[in-house]
Design a protein that fits this description.
Number of strands of chain A: 0
Oligomer: homodimer
CATH superfamily of chain A: Tetracycline Repressor, domain 2
Strand content of chain A: under 5%
CATH class of chain A: Mainly Alpha
Largest sheet of chain A: none
Shape of chain A: elongated
Order of helices and strands of chain A: HHHHHHHHHH
Distance between the termini of chain A: 68 Å
Largest interface: A-B, 61 and 62 residues
Number of helices of chain A: 10
CATH architecture of chain A: Orthogonal Bundle
Structural class of chain A: mainly alpha
Radius of gyration of chain A: 20 Å
CATH topology of chain A: Tetracycline Repressor, domain 2
């Protein structure tokens, strides 16, 4: 069915351009007219594939999620166990292409609170995103399955929150966050989280008690 | 000079409304017309105080920074040493007013990459923001001055990145991040960072070597 394949390809192509346009000009300036022009199509042609600008944005989000998923789940070159830091660095804005994706993602976060439909889409995306990172941590840390459910939940939230923070910080202040610094800071975070999760468990030795004991 | 006082107050008042409008409707929909209407003024009246929408946004940013600064630097009730977790929680979207500020901040991050003037303003804001958090950490951790400059820099970046991550994550997915969870996750982060910074220093025992040793 060549026509259907073409259709999906064309949608993806427009979504890629939309991602770039949002990253470069912001949500506001990313009009259908501009996206069409950058893609080399007429507005009518784009309208044939997408009803609204919001639909294009959602297609772009899905495409980025698919790309990140692909990068975070592919087997490491040369086989063997994947290195967790290398794996998770794939989600950071460490080169021009990833910066564009992260800038789009940050622009999206900035719109979610104000848009009911984006809110719904985001909660689906968010779930998929958390599951993806959970799979990564389970692949990268052999101890993962030995940790309690509560520990795993806190570790997952901590790592994803930190990566989101690196994403927003780098997009807002790229001069402060060259790739090597992002990776070094993520490495430190993974080390700290792992050391905490691997701590010898004692009755009521959670972080709350540790914090109290330190005061 | 009552006229000047009035002028500054009026600007602040419009900035507060702009913050709320951006948080609720997004950057795109936060037009001067809408901001004026929500503030109960005519567009002409708002134009008397601000030339462009961008000027209003910048005034709102400055106002939020001033507010956070006030909350993070005031002495604790009852005197004594401030509790670092309580202090830093002031920057999190843990209630409606703080959520509005954080939603505005996230919307701003989403625009920075696309706007040269916002980029310049952001780098000034960013510096002030980092200095503010540095003062907080120095107040809350008596060991701060004993840590090496490198350790202090990594700790500061780690804490601010994590707070930025909590901000963006909560604004995008508020259902996942009730206030108690934000605070608990920040508490864990502070515990981990402190434990790392307090580690006994050994020659070449930085995180890179530890990570290699664990593989």
């Amino acid at each position: 069915m060549p026509k259907i394949v073409d259709h999906a390809q064309r949608r993806d192509e427009i979504a890629v351009v939309a991602c770039r346009v949002v990253a470069r000009y912001g949500f506001e300036q990313a009009t259908i007219v501009r996206i069409a022009r950058e893609a080399g199509y007429t507005t009518g042609m784009v309208a044939h594939y997408f009803d609204t600008k919001q639909d294009i944005i959602i297609a772009a989000l899905r495409l980025i999620l698919r790309r990140i998923e692909h990068r975070l789940t592919r087997p490491p070159e040369g086989g063997g166990e994947p290195d967790l830091l290398a794996l998770l660095s794939e989600a950071l804005p460490i080169d021009a292409a990833r910066f564009t994706e992260c800038a789009f993602w940050t622009a999206f976060w900035g719109q979610v609170a104000a848009d009911k439909r984006l809110k719904r889409i985001n909660s689906l995306m968010h779930r998929a995103y958390m599951q993806l990172f959970e799979r990564c941590l389970a692949r990268g840390w052999p101890q993962w399955t030995g940790w309690s459910t509560d520990t795993r939940q806190r570790v997952l939230r901590s790592v994803v929150t930190f990566i989101n923070g690196l994403t927003a910080s780098t997009v807002a202040s790229p001069g402060d966050w060259p790739a090597a610094r992002q990776i070094e800071q993520l490495r430190l975070h993974l080390d700290m989280v792992q050391a905490w999760a691997d701590r010898p468990t004692q009755p009521d030795a959670g972080p709350a008690r540790l914090a109290r004991a330190r005061r």
